[in-house]
Specification:
heterodimer; A: about 325 residues; mainly alpha; two-stranded antiparallel ribbon; 11 helices; 2 strands; about 0% strand; B: about 450 residues
C-alpha cells in the first residue's frame, strides 16, 4: 500500500478514536449540570471520566500532530481557514481542562457551580464545532489554487453544517449517557436512562437529517464504502436506542460507539483520496497526494506509528480495566 | 499593527505563559516520583504526606501546562500556515512523535496516578508517576528538537519550494538540541528546587508541619544546589555553541557592534541602536573572548560585520535582532541564576551546620527566591526566540514570509485578547488555589463517605 494512503487511514483511525472516546466524555460533560442533583452526584459523574478524559483528548492532539506531519498542507489550510472556529474550540478546551482540576479544590458552592458550567460549556462547544468542521470538510469550502482558504467564518455556517454540528452534539450526548449507565449505580441509572431516551430520540431525528443532507449536499454516497458505512451508522444508532429502551446498556453503548465509528469511517471513505474538498474547483481540492509530506518523512512516521499506536492502545485499554468498576460515593477522594 | 506583528505577540504571550508551567512540571514530577519511591521503600507515612502535598501542587501546575500546550500546537496552522507548508515535512514529525511517545503516556498515567491510589499496588502506583516524569521530559525533548531546527537547520534539502527532511537522525541529534535540552531540563530542576525550598521556608518560618517541611527543605536543597550549578555549566556550554552556530545572536546579546579580538564582556551598557553604538559601557576586557573560546585570544564578530555578511548572502534587509532587549534579558537570566546559586549555597551551609532555623533571615531570603526561576526561564526563552529574528528558520524563512495570508488582523486581535483575558483569569484562579494549598499544608485525606449498598445493573445485563 502506498504510504500516502496508509497515512490517510491512520489519520482516519485517530479521528475515529477521538470521536469515539472523547465523544462520551463530551457527552458526560454536557449532562453534568442536569443529571447531578447534589455535589456528591456531580462528583460521581465527573469521576466516571476523571481518570480517562485527558488520555482521550490526546487522540485529538495526536490527530492534529499526525496531520501536520503527514499532510502539512491540510493542517495549514484547515487551521488557518477555520481560524475563529478553532479559537473558540481552544478557549472551550482550556476552560474544560482546568475545570476538572479546579472544581473540587474549594468547597464554595459558587466556585463549584461555576466550574461545573465551564465543564458543560467546554463540552458543548467542541462537540458542536467538530460537527460543523467535519461537515464542511466533506461538503467543500472555498479553497483557491494556492491551497488557501478564501472564505470567512460565516461561510462555514450553512444549514447543512449547522445540522452536522447539532448531530455531533446530540449523538455524543446519547453516547455519554450510555457510558454513564455503565458507570454509575443504583437509582441514578434509571435517571440516566430516561435522559438517554429523551436525548436519543432528538439525536435520532437530527442524525437522520444530517445523513439525509449529506446525501444531497455531498458526493459521499457515490462511494460504495462511504454510503454503506453511513447507512450502517444509522442502523447502529437505532439499535443502540432500542437496547437502551430494553435496558441492555452494554449493548447500547457498543451500538452508539459503532454508530460514531461508522460515521467517521463513512466520511473518510467517501472523501478519499481527497482530504479537503474545494468548492471552487474540484482540481484545487487537497488530496493525499498533493498535500502530503515526502516519502522519506512518511516512512519514518510509519515506523513510529505502527510501533507506538498498538502500545498506546494497550495501556489505554489497561486504564479502562483498572477503572472498570462503577463509581460510587466512596470513590470521591479526589 | 500588522498581522505578522500581532501573530508574533500572540505567539510570544501564549508561549511565555505556557512556559511558566512547564519547567516546574519537568522538575517536580521527578521529585514527587522520588518521594513516592521512598514511601514505597520505607513505608514511612512522612514520605506519603510529602508525595500528596507536592503532588497536589504538581497537578495544579500540570493542568495549566497541558491546556496551554494545546494552543501551542494549533498556533502553527492558525497563524503561521506558510511556515507549516514550508516546514511541515520536517517540523510536523517531532510534534507527532511527541504526541505518540510522550503525550499519550503522560496523560494516561497521570489519570491513573490521580485516581489510582486505592486501585493499584504501591509499586505500580509509584511507577505511574515515574512514567509521567519520564514522558514530560521526553516531550520537552521533541519540542526542543523541533525548535532547534529553527535555530540551526540540519538534515534537510530545499526542493519544490519547501524544506524536506533528508535525515531524521540528524534532526534529533542536532548539536543545538544537545545543548538546549540539558539546559532546559536543568532549569526545570532548579525551578522545582526553588519552588520546594521557598514553600518549605514559609512553613519553617511559621513553625507549622515541621517534619514534612524540614525533610522537603533538605530535598529541595540537594536538588537546587546540584541543579543551579549544572544549569550554569550547561548555560555556559550553550552560549559557546551559540557563538559558533548563531554569531549574530551572540553579538546582539552582548551588544558588540564592532568585531573585536579580544572582545570585552559588557556588564552594563547604554545602547544606541539607531547609531549602532553603545554610548556608555562597563566591560571586563577580554572576558567575552574567554567565554566564547576558553582562551584570551580569538575574535568575536560584531553586529555590523555580521549584518554586512548576511546582506551579502541573503540579499538586502535588516538582519539585526532587538539588541537592547536581548542584552538585558540575558543579564536578567544570568543575575537571577547567580542570586539563586548564592542564596541556595548559603542556606545549604547553614543547614549543614544545623543552624538554618536560627537564621530566619536566610529562610525569608529563600522565600523571596520564588519568582526568580520564573523570571530566569522567561528571559532565557526570550533570548533564544527574539535572538532568531528576523528569521523564522535561520537562513531559510523569514518571519514575515511565514504568516497565514488569509487571517485578518481583526481575527488575530480577537484571539489575542481572548487568550490574554482567559489566561489572566486562570492565573488568578490557579494562584488562589495554590496559595490555599500552601497555607493549608499537608492534610490527611478525607474520611470516605460510606456507600449505599450496591444494587442494580451489572455491565452486560
Amino acid at each position: 500500500m502506498e504510504l500516502n494512503v496508509l497515512w490517510f487511514i491512520l489519520v482516519g483511525v485517530l479521528f475515529t478514536g477521538f470521536f469515539f472516546l472523547e465523544g462520551f466524555d463530551y457527552g458526560v460533560g454536557m449532562l453534568l449540570p442536569f443529571l447531578g442533583r447534589n455535589d456528591v452526584e456531580r462528583r460521581v459523574i465527573i469521576n466516571t471520566i476523571g481518570p480517562v478524559w485527558d488520555g482521550n483528548e490526546v487522540w485529538m492532539i495526536t490527530a492534529g500532530g499526525a496531520m501536520f506531519a503527514a499532510f502539512p498542507h491540510v493542517y495549514a489550510t484547515m487551521f488557518s481557514g477555520f481560524y475563529m472556529a478553532l479559537f473558540l474550540m481552544l478557549m472551550a478546551l482550556i476552560v474544560r481542562g482546568v475545570a476538572f482540576e479546579f472544581r473540587s479544590k474549594d468547597e464554595s458552592p459558587v466556585w463549584r457551580g461555576t466550574w461545573d458550567w465551564m465543564i458543560f460549556i467546554g463540552s458543548v462547544i467542541p462537540a458542536l464545532l467538530w460537527g460543523v468542521a467535519v461537515t464542511n470538510l466533506i461538503k467543500g469550502v472555498p479553497i483557491n489554487e494556492k491551497m488557501i482558504y478564501v472564505g470567512t467564518f460565516f461561510d462555514l455556517l450553512s444549514p447543512y453544517t449547522l445540522v452536522g454540528g447539532l448531530a455531533f452534539l446530540l449523538v455524543f450526548l446519547f453516547h455519554g449517557a450510555l457510558y454513564l449507565t455503565l458507570k454509575v449505580e443504583g437509582e441514578m441509572i434509571e435517571r440516566v436512562r430516561s435522559v438517554a431516551l429523551k436525548g436519543g430520540a432528538l439525536a435520532a431525528v437530527v442524525f437522520l437529517a444530517c445523513v439525509g443532507l449529506t446525501y444531497t449536499n455531498t458526493d459521499l454516497f457515490s462511494s460504495v464504502l462511504g454510503g454503506t458505512a453511513l447507512w450502517g451508522a444509522v442502523a447502529a444508532f437505532v439499535a443502540g436506542y432500542a437496547f437502551t429502551w430494553l435496558k441492555k446498556y452494554g449493548w447500547g453503548f457498543a451500538m452508539s460507539s459503532l454508530a460514531i465509528v461508522l460515521t467517521t469511517a463513512g466520511f473518510f471513505a467517501g472523501l478519499f483520496p481527497r482530504i479537503m474538498v474545494s468548492s471552487l474547483n474540484s482540481a484545487w481540492s487537497l488530496t493525499v497526494y498533493n498535500a502530503s509530506s515526502t516519502p522519506y518523512t512518511l516512512k519514518i512516521m510509519t515506523f513510529a506509528a505502527l510501533t507506538l499506536v498498538p502500545i498506546v492502545l494497550a495501556y489505554q485499554i489497561w486504564t479502562y480495566w483498572v477503572f472498570r468498576k462503577r463509581v460510587t460515593a466512596r470513590d470521591l477522594e479526589y | 499593527m500588522d498581522e505578522v506583528l500581532l501573530a508574533r505577540w500572540q505567539f510570544g504571550i501564549t508561549s511565555v505563559y505556557h512556559f511558566l508551567f512547564i519547567p516546574l512540571t519537568l522538575g517536580l514530577s521527578i521529585m514527587v516520583a522520588i518521594m513516592e519511591t521512598m514511601y514505597v521503600r520505607t513505608n514511612n507515612e512522612l514520605y506519603k504526606k510529602m508525595t500528596k502535598f507536592w503532588g497536589k501542587l504538581f497537578l495544579l501546575n500540570f493542568a495549566m501546562g497541558v491546556v496551554t500546550g494545546i494552543v501551542q500546537e494549533f498556533h502553527f496552522g492558525m497563524n503561521w500556515s506558510e511556515y507549516s507548508r514550508f516546514m511541515g515535512d520536517i517540523f510536523g514529525a517531532p510534534l507527532a512523535m511527541e504526541a505518540l511517545t510522550a503525550f499519550f503516556l503522560e496523560s494516561t498515567f497521570m489519570g491513573i496516578w490521580i485516581f489510582g491510589w486505592d486501585r493499584l499496588s504501591k509499586g505500580l502506583h509509584a511507577a505511574c508517576i515515574w512514567i509521567v516524569a519520564f514522558a514530560s521530559n521526553l516531550s520537552a525533548f521533541w519540542i526542543l528538537a523541533a525548535n532547534s531546527f529553527m535555530q540551526h537547520p540540519v538534515g534537510y534539502a530545499i526542493n519544490n519550494g519547501r524544506a524536506e527532511m533528508t535525515d531524521f537522525i540528524a534532526l534529533i541529534t542536532n548539536p543545538y538540541v544537545a545543548y538546549q535540552f540539558p539546559h532546559t531540563v536543568l532549569s526545570g530542576v532548579v525551578t522545582a528546587g526553588i519552588f520546594v525550598l521557598a514553600i518549605s521556608a514559609y512553613h519553617l518560618l511559621k513553625g507549622t508541619h515541621l517534619e514534612v517541611f524540614r525533610t522537603s527543605f533538605k530535598f529541595g536543597l540537594i536538588w537546587s544546589i546540584v541543579g543551579v550549578l549544572a544549569v550554569m555549566g550547561s548555560g555556559h556550554l550553550q552560549t559557546q555553541y551559540v557563538a559558533k552556530a548563531q554569531p549574530m545572536k551572540l553579538a546582539a546579546t552582548e551588544a558588540l557592534w564592532e568585531s573585536a579580538d579580544p572582545a570585552p564582556f559588557a556588564l552594563a551598557a547604554v545602547i544606541d541602536e539607531k547609531n549602532q553604538t553603545n554610548s556608555f559601557e562597563i566591560g571586563v576586557p577580554g572576558a567575552l573572548t574567554f567565554l566564547a573560546h576558553d582562551s584570551f585570544k580569538g575574535e568575536v564578530k560584531g553586529i555590523k560585520e555580521l549584518q554586512a555578511a548576511a546582506a551579502a548572502k541573503y540579499g538586502p534587509g535588516n538582519y539585526i535582532p532587538d539588541v537592547t532587549a536581548l542584552f538585558w534579558s540575558f543579564r536578567v537570566m544570568v543575575i537571577a541564576g547567580m542570586i539563586m546559586a548564592g542564596v541556595t549555597l548559603l542556606c545549604g551551609l547553614l543547614w549543614f551546620k544545623g543552624k538554618l532555623e536560627d537564621y530566619p533571615i536566610a529562610l525569608k531570603a529563600m522565600l523571596l527566591m520564588l519568582p526568580l526561576p520564573y523570571i530566569a526561564n522567561s528571559a532565557g526563552w526570550f533570548v533564544t526566540e527574539a535572538g532568531r529574528q528576523p528569521w523564522m528558520v535561520i537562513g531559510l524563512q523569514k518571519v514575515a514570509q511565514a504568516a497565514s495570508p488569509n487571517v485578518t488582523a481583526t481575527e488575530i486581535w480577537i484571539s489575542l485578547i481572548g487568550f490574554t483575558l482567559l489566561y489572566g483569569v486562570l492565573a488568578v484562579a490557579a494562584v488562589f488555589l495554590a496559595i490555599k494549598f500552601i497555607k493549608q499544608g499537608p492534610v490527611d485525606s478525607k474520611p470516605n463517605i460510606p456507600a449505599a449498598p450496591v444494587k442494580g445493573a451489572t455491565l452486560w445485563n
